[in-house]
TrEMBL record:
Keywords: Signal. Residues 29-250 form the Ionotropic glutamate receptor C-terminal domain. Residues 29-251 form the Solute-binding protein family 3/N-terminal domain. It comes from Paenibacillus provencensis. InterPro entries: Iontro_rcpt_C, Solute-binding_3/MltF_N. Residues 1-19 form the signal peptide. Gene3D superfamilies: Periplasmic binding protein-like II (3.40.190.10). The keyword Cytoplasm does not apply. This is Amino acid ABC transporter substrate-binding protein.
Amino acid sequence: MKKSAWIVMISMFVLVLSACSTSGQDENTLVIGIDDKFAPMGFRDESNDIVGFDIDYATAAAEKMGKEVEFQPIDWSSKESELSSGRIDLIWNGYTITDERKEKVLFTKPYMANSQVAVVLSDSPLASLEELEGKNIGLQKLSSASDALSAHPINEKVGTVSEFPDNVLALSDLKSGRLDAVIIDEVVAKYYMSLEEGTYKLLDESLAPEEYGIGVKKGSEALLNELQSALDELSEDGTAASISEKWFGENKVLN
């Protein structure tokens, strides 16, 4: 056999070994898609480290599963596409369970209750959802906040609805006076209210109750069942409650 043929065969063998090695690493690592500006569920701290309730919760679940975890910031408006393409293994960052999303992904059991609320500045005269008539509203693009507003009767009465890549930008426009209110997850709203006391207030009613779950790619029932078993263990041994106490001062995890 010619020397060049041997070189080709050896090169191919090395490539196969490399592919197998990479595959093994991937199988032992859960790549989790997150919105890294969704405090307190998953966000960057002052050191630019990704932290939050869902970050700790996912890390603990991965440990139960004997896996490593990698958090991948994504464009939240493309989250289902990222999952279906295989670029991420899970959507796990305050991901609301909806009937529309159930057609695209598999969901774990709900692990936390939430609701969509309207946030205004503390000195705003607005007090109820009905008073949003004709007002300028902001929300995160392709979020459950958008779904909640669309399904509420007040949607037909508001003035303009501006969409933002994330909640931080929406709240910034609220503080600058370009918006009258922001529709946002209650857990997120209360987190920012705790950081900037006296800046915001919530209107009296919520738009819609909801629940958070973890999204798994369609057809990945084995991964879904393995993950759910890990989550059940975290609830049973008190780990989930401990993580919740750290971030919320109480146990908000659903059993």
